[in-house]
Amino acid sequence: MRFSKLYAPTIKESPADAEVISHELLVRGGFIRKVAAGVFTYLPLGKRVLKKIEELVRTEMDAAGCQEILMPIIQPSDMWKTTGRWEDYGPEMMKITDRHDRQFTLGPTHEEMVTTTVKNELASYKELPINLYQIYTKYRDEIRPRFGLLRAREFIMKDAYSFHTSMEDLHKTYQTMYQAYARILERMGLKYMVVEADTGAIGGSCSHEFNILATNGESNLYYCPKCGYSASDEKAGYAKEAPYPEEAPRVLRKVSTPGVKTIEQVSAFLGLPASRIVKSLLFKGREGFVMVMIRGDHEINLSKLRAAAQDQTLELAQPDDVAEAFGVPIGFIGPVGIKNSVKIYGDWSVQGLRNIVVGGMETDFHYCDANVGRDYTVSEWHDLRMVRAGDRCPQCSEPLLETKGIEMGHIFELGTKYSEKLDATYTDENGQSHPFVMGCYGWGVSRTIAGVVEQSHDDKGIIWPLAIAPYHLMITVVNVNDPLQKETGERLYRHFSERGAEVLLDDRAASAGFKFNDADLIGIPVRLTIGKAVSSGVIELKKRYEKEPVKVQLEDGFDSVYKLFESMIATYAPGI
């Protein structure tokens, strides 16, 4: 491809809304253009990268025994209502109504669709297991689309779904897909971490995330260097702390705390540490309000709460809703005297804590020296808080370490969650009917572009891994008005193209600095430069991430130049 004909409008300025480096570099390098919040057009360079990621993923899926299909984006609401996810998925689901007032969704995922598709076709245990996948567009109405391709409303995803006769058989496919996902990342030469993860609205008994490690990653990952435990921030657990010292219960007191609402304010007003003050947070779900009690120096983990309560619709209650239902502002809500209809969940950090401070259920008042059992009742105790670096590993009690990552893939053992609700069954060897045992496996194809850039870049631009680079070689003719430079560039371009290399020839009438800056910004793995030295029979080859070029004598012939290029490609490993 000739750069003079390539539609790749590079720009010097960073987009005003770019919050992460991948968004900035992909726009500046002419890979993508924003259409609306969370919606992007892929320009030719971006499309080439996208296509290579798709093919890499497709190759690994086919090798794992998957079969490719294509399902519709528009899905009828009925199947989602049958599984209960029409409400569970929340406002992220893009819902539409046709002219006949029938409800549909623009598919955020396809568990219901694929299960409905196979339920009348797969009848016998002899046809199982089977694993079906697609690479297609998904839609999620993010409340705040951000980070470019990392948090988009329209995105391309590979989603696979397997059907089995038993959990044992599902485990085998789960491991096969686990290994396939690891190979995808390894083929791109990326540093990654696999962690236990929350199953969320997808559901199931087990799931793992595959994360690219990146300084600006959106996910906090926790891991134990001793035993190997690792988990996402939504899932990470911690070893229970040692029991609190025995403390005699004191008399419950109601204390005036005018205008004091936050933990910091209460702590300062009463002269107590935040660890002695308990936050009472109200959440609202499909069955009304629930309360969570957690120590004042900790933060609630909504994913853990939803899993414990088995309600994916739970959201922090709004001030107006709380005031209307309880007649008290949020800052003064507490467990003492709360309505019996409100189920109380307690975090482990509160279990065993005596003589605590809680909201007084009256404006400008707090209770001091409240005690569980005497003054209020906790229905269930769970690990409900966000883990922090230094917390003890739940498996071996060593301190947990923290790193940043970007989720690329997520695999789930679903069990019979969808097949039971959708009446999707097979017949065993004895003629008995059973629900399919299912697994699902997602890979963010379009977000991989951004994730790779987040990990692999420098202050000049993108450094593409060879496997997904838009082109492998950039031939830069420094001065196209110099006949020798231009002719040499054309001849090398033809020679490399005929040998099957993916070549971009920069034949633009622009300054050398402009061309070099574009080459670094776009991130082509190897650059071949033809400048003034060509009059002495010398050209230069350089890997994108190396500072010094290798000088090559043309008198040795174009084949020797190509062999050097091949050796550079064979040893290409940015290691950023």
Per CATH, the superfamily of the largest domain is Bira Bifunctional Protein, Domain 2
Poorly predicted sequence stretches spanning 5 or more consecutive residues: none
How many strands? 31
CATH architecture descriptor name of the largest domain: 2-Layer Sandwich
Number of self-contained structural domains? 3
Global morphology: globular
Annotation field: number of helices: 14
CATH class of the largest domain: Alpha Beta
Give the percentage of residues in beta strands: 25-35%
Which bin fits the share of residues in helices? 25-40%
- Fold-level CATH name of the largest domain: BirA Bifunctional Protein, domain 2
Quote the average pLDDT.
95
Gyration radius, rounded: 29 Å
For the terminal residues, how far apart are their CA atoms? 28 Å
Name the assembly state: single chain
Give a quick account of the main beta sheet: strands, pairing sense, barrel closure: 9 strands, mixed
Structural class: alpha+beta
Overview of this protein structure:
With 576 residues, the protein is α+β, with helices and mostly antiparallel strands. The protein has 3 domains: 43-237 and 401-454, 2-Layer Sandwich (BirA Bifunctional Protein, domain 2), CATH 3.30.930; 253-382, Alpha-Beta Complex (YbaK protein); 471-570, 3-Layer(aba) Sandwich (Rossmann fold), CATH 3.40.50.800. It is 26% helix and 28% strand. It has 14 helices and 31 strands. Strands 3, 7, 8, 9, 10, 11, 12, 21 and 24 form a 9-stranded mixed β-sheet that branches. Strands 16-14-15-17-20 form a 5-stranded mixed β-sheet, covered by helices on one side. Strands 28-27-29-30-31 form a 5-stranded mixed β-sheet, with helices on both faces. Strand 25 (457-458) and strand 26 form a beta hairpin. The longest helix is centred in the N-terminal third of the chain and has 21 residues, at 167-187. The radius of gyration is 29 Å and the shape is globular.
